[in-house]
Amino acid sequence: MDADKDNPNPTIVNASDLPSRRRSNPTAKRPTLFDSLIAPAYPSYAVPLDDLSSPEVSDAASDDEEDTPREEIDAQEIYDLISSIQDPEHPNSLASLAVVNLPDISISPPSSPNSRISTVTVLLTPTTAHCSLGTVIGLAVRVRLENALPPRFRIDVRLKEGTHTTADAVNKQLGDKERVAAAMENGTLVGVIRNMLSTCE
Amino acid sequence: MPATISPLATLTPPCNSRAWSSHPHPHLPIVATACSDKTVRIYSLTNFAQQSSIAGGHKRSIRSCAWKPNSVGESVLATGSFDASAGIWRRWEEGAGKAEAAREVDFTSGLAGGDGAADEEDEEWRFAVILDGHDSEIKSLGFATTAPLLATCSRDKSVWIWEELEDDNFETVAVLQEHEGDVKCVAWSPAEELLASGSYDDQIRLWREDVDDWACCAMLEGHKGTVWWVEFESAERVGALAKTDGLNDEQKALLDVRDTAGPRLASCSDDMTLRIWKRVPKEKPSEPTGQGKMPSIWKNKDFDEEWVQEAILPQVHERAVYAFSWSKKTGRIVSTGSDGKIVVYEERWCNRSGADVAMRDVSPAPGAEEKVPGSGLTEWVAVAVTENAHDVFEVNHAVWAPRSDKDKRYDGEEVIVTTGDDGEVKVWTLDE
Predict the structure, then answer these.
(1) Residues whose CB falls within 8 Å of the CB of residue B402, separated by 6 or more in sequence, listed in order
(2) MIP18 family-like domain spans which residues (chain A) (predicted)?
């Protein structure tokens, strides 16, 4: 069975070595963030988020009543959202296989005072340079973030440069919203992704 | 910015999931919106309400649709879906097609811009035929205006051309497979049987019939990412360059060359740019008329055409540009994309008078480039920008449409219709 896998013996990181917030129990859900996952991400967030509204936002253009306070979202929170996604062929999380790494997650703020769009970039490190499941893993990460983050985030998921033989082709697919949308109407693929994400909820 | 893009209306009710694109009817004040919920919604641009809908024909998202331009006494809509099929739908409609012809048919009720509820019950869309053949998602489709041809394109890397022999009998006349990636868009020339396609392989191809077979007559390279949309300009000269009074010889020569070359093509891409492409007219005794069929000269000359990039529009978008529309009335281009911006561009004569001549506008030495006037004579300017057009959502499509509501300000006024990931279709005016 293992012989069929692209990488039968992946390196597995000890769970206690994975990045987490020191002040919180890594297994505890962060209530503020997950509230926004359960409720429709838009147009309004739960009221208790008020105290988290960031100063960066309050002086930005908010001429619109629907403008609700933005919670701060940092790389650690993005990491927490995707680290527990299960690898499609190993009984391990993407974090423990070091496919997802905290330093490879970045968030770009809106490019101008008028813009309200932030960009999350996640660079993935496949376990082997020819892993045929790179696209599926990337898709799972993108779908997870699309479902979990408010729509003001644009999500760029890519394979880290030099980590994969067909990185450019995989990256182009992951960046194509039409292909991603069509893939999510493919029952087989949706089943695989749902399975990978089952460890997230 | 000299102009402002102002919200006029949001069409109701919105789709509750992603809406992909909205297509104005060739004659009636309605748009057809392709939705990811497998439906097409037909909205009135007169009262901004939904008038009818098409459902139950496709198993997956409807990505795009296209109105048949010359249908008589009825509306004909083609739908392209992620389920790999295209559907043809019909609905009797007074005012659809040619006005005189429409009166010859006895209609039970008029529909143009009519009140929604009654129409929906009395006048259903009739499913006419399904076009099967593509292996995977259909991304775009379009009817030719100069012949009974429909083009479809797909993730299967192919472009299909279908000929409508008689009603509901479509025959495949070509399967064009030169693209090396998904074909994202197709567009017909308004002046001749010339088809453009844009692809995931970053290239644009032009297709024409060569004796009996359709083949690629030009490949346009330049974009550094997926080409999301292509569209030809109007066959007639319109907009800021339409007036010929007071032009100098150089400017007149440019317009002459353009008339000879035929309508230009524009494209937009994942690389965040919009580009204009032009045909290089061939050296020959007689010139293409740009009307209807290609002149007979082609049969004796090389089939291949030479197209070159004429301009890159001012860089305003910060993410992928998904769609644009080239106004047949004003010659202006409106674009939109992942960054949620709507941008309007206009082509103008460069200001070359007296002291205002900028360094970049310095004329070439007399005679040096006489043969190819063009570059440097005109410039594209962004005349209006709005951000967050669909709140924080991506905008998938923008198109010009005739303004048809009661507050229309002047004859020929156009509105911008945008379609977004929030499922909404919004209507905008351009205020100068």
Answers:
(1) B24, B29, B45, B412, B413, B414, B415
(2) 76-151
* CB pair distance less than 8 Å for A152 and B392: yes
Fold of B69-96+124-282+303-415: Methylamine Dehydrogenase; Chain H (2.130.10)
Number of Cβ atoms within 10 Å of the Cβ of B377:
18
Among A residues 103-122, those touching chain B with beta carbons less than 8 Å apart: 111-112, 114-117
Please check whether residue A150 touches B, CB under 8 A.
yes
**Phi, psi (rounded to 5 degrees) for B385:** -140, 140
pTM of the model: 0.83
Instruction: Write out chain A residues lying below 8 Å of B392, CB-based.
Output: 42, 116-117, 150-152
What is the DSSP track for A38-100?
Answer: HS-SSS---GGGGGGB-HHHHTS---STT--PPBP--HHHHHHHHHTPBPSSSSSBTTTTTSS
- Chain A residues whose CB is inside 8 A of the B391 CB are 42-43, 66, 151
In the predicted model, is pLDDT for residue A34 greater than 70? no
Q: CB-based contacts of B357: which residues, under 8 Å, 6+ apart?
A: B351
Q: Which of A43, A114, A177 sits opposite B387 (nearest CB)?
A: A114
> What are the boundaries of each domain within chain B?
69-96+124-282+303-415
Q: What whole-number distance in Å separates Cα of residue A105 and Cα of residue B285?
A: 62
Q: CA of A16 to nearest chain B CA: how many angstroms apart?
A: 38
CA angle (B81 as vertex; B78, B86 as ends), nearest 5: 40
Tell me how close the Cα of A154 comes to any Cα of chain B, in angstroms.
8
Q: Answer whether B37 touches A (CB < 8 Å).
A: no
Give the pLDDT confidence of B44-84 residue by residue, as tens digits. 999 999 999 999 999 999 999 999 998 878 999 999 999 99
B164-210 pLDDT tens trace: 998 789 999 999 999 999 999 999 999 999 999 999 999 999 999 99
B394: tokens are: 């991506």
Distance (Å, whole) CA B196 – CA B189: 8
Which distant-in-sequence residues (6+ apart) come within 8 Å of A8 by Cβ? A2
pLDDT of residue B114: 42
How close B387 comes to chain A (CA, Å)? 7
What is the reported pLDDT for B400? 98
**Could you report the predicted ipTM of this complex, rounded to two decimals?**
0.84
